[in-house]
Design a protein that fits this description.
single chain, alpha+beta, Rossmann fold, D-amino Acid Aminotransferase, Chain A, domain 1, 3 domains, six-stranded mixed beta sheet, six-stranded antiparallel beta sheet, 8 helices, 18 strands, 30% strand, globular
Length: 348
């Protein structure tokens, strides 16, 4: 059991894998526990299966013993949502648990994964953010993509419910009527749009896909790059925690590191214009997300710039991945714990 008087008790919610083991970023959870202990707080991880009426079955990391210890825990002062699976969040049991937190007055963040089309609609209707969103449509039938591709020689196809660059394709006109299809692992040329559509329509229409125009991105040493920005709530505002650069290398569809992208230090390409852009969009994105979906204590942004200097927001992620830059990851831990302490400041 945890002594509730010792400081804030943070419940980190994750989920079980198909083999029954606990999923999630164990390294992140350990770092949060160590930092919280230094701040007179404590944390434990749990899954939906461990929740009960009075106590929650979970695990708390012991730095002294360097291991996870199973235990029964009281309702935490705050729940940090790190559920890694969309399907888990969409279950009725999960929805009931978050309603239980509301009924008990227990704060939690983040409210859930962001649907890419809902995000696009939110930003498209925002007085400031609308200026930075690439034209995007919901792909519902053949003519939607055909017309967009006629007006724009290159188009990205993105699943509305995905992350880490999974399921993203690019379709381009090589020279009319030839079509080139590209994924992270392969490239196929088709003699016509009809031939391309015959091969891929079943997949594209079986899921919710978005079609987004391809931006002629700025390049460094011959390869395009974009920005990865992480931000956290600071009391009633939002501020930058860190910025990284990701550059395409082996393939040009995404800049994600697991897909062959290259990491560059932001200092290499930093400008006052970049900094002003980040400082402009972050408070607007944080407030818009929280008003629309529920409180966001953190989020990351994929953004970029065209060769003619126009900025774009590509995606916003509610559960940021680990940053490869050690200094950003360390600051992320500090900022998360500040959010925890701020939101539980009224707790005994």
């Amino acid at each position: 059991m945890i002594d509730k008087q010792a400081g804030p008790v943070i419940g980190i919610m994750t989920a079980l894998k198909s083999d029954g083991t606990v999923a999630g970023n164990g390294e992140l959870f350990i770092k949060l526990q160590k930092k919280l202990i230094s701040l007179n707080g404590i944390s434990f991880i749990f899954t939906l299966e461990g929740t009960g009426a009075e106590y929650i079955e979970g695990f708390s990391y012991s730095p002294d013993e360097n291991r996870w210890i199973k235990g029964s825990f009281p309702n935490p002062d705050l729940v940090y949502n790190r559920i890694p699976f969309r399907k888990t969040e969409q279950t009725e049991d999960c929805k009931r648990f978050f309603q239980h937190l509301k009924d008990k007055g227990i704060p939690y963040f983040n409210p859930g994964f962001i649907d890419k089309y809902e995000l696009y609609q939110l930003m498209e209707n925002h007085p400031v953010l609308k200026d930075y969103v690439p034209k995007t449509i919901l792909l519902q039938e053949k003519k939607d993509l055909e017309l967009l591709l006629k007006a724009n020689s290159s188009v990205y196809l993105k699943p509305a419910a995905s992350s880490k660059g999974k399921g993203i394709f690019r379709v381009r006109h090589l020279s009319s009527p030839y079509i080139q299809f590209e994924s992270r692992k392969r490239s196929i040329s088709y003699p016509s749009f009809e031939d391309f559509w015959q091969d891929w329509s079943e997949l594209l229409l079986s899921k919710t896909y978005l079609a987004q125009i391809d931006i002629n991105s700025a390049e460094y040493e011959g390869f395009r790059y974009d920005f990865r920005i992480i931000a956290h709530a600071e009391k009633e505002e939002y501020a930058i925690t860190g910025v990284g650069i990701r550059q395409s290398q082996e393939q040009g569809v995404t800049t994600h590191i697991p897909s062959g992208g290259r990491l560059l230090p932001y200092s290499l390409l930093q400008t006052n214009e970049h900094d002003r852009f980040f400082q402009l969009i972050i408070p607007h994105i944080g407030k818009a997300l929280s008003e629309q979906f529920g409180f966001f204590g953190e989020f990351s942004i994929d953004a970029g710039m065209s060769k003619n200097g126009k900025y774009y927001i590509y995606e916003v992620n509610s559960k940021p991945m680990r940053f490869d830059e050690a200094e950003i990851e360390e600051k992320k831990i500090e900022q998360l714990c500040r959010v925890f302490l701020h939101l539980t400041s009224s707790c005994p």
